[in-house]
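Explain this fold:

***
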Amino acid sequence: MAKVEIVDSLTLEIYKKFKQESVEVLEYLKSLEQHPQKGKELGTVGGIVIKELKYKGFRFYFITDGFTLRCMDEKKLLDILLLFVRMSDKKAQQETIEKIKHILRTIGSEGF
């Protein structure tokens, strides 16, 4: 089973945007613990894979170790960390992806 972490700033943004529906959104994001292969791969920066998960009109971006995802099958996924870092709507999608890539290139995954 994979471990899903959500950055505190993203959790606050989810609470502000979705209000009562935020519990359902957070459960949807946590569903990746059971199905870590979900989501669309957007790119790779230094072995770190950026993926997106869609919920209604919003996109949630998370990063993970690409080498671990490719080398293991789903039954052996015990030590994978999926870190949700950003959220955007359709209009700001490309801008958000570029910001994530920039942070990963300059600071690394510790920048979140």
Observations:
- The first helix runs from residue 8 to 18.
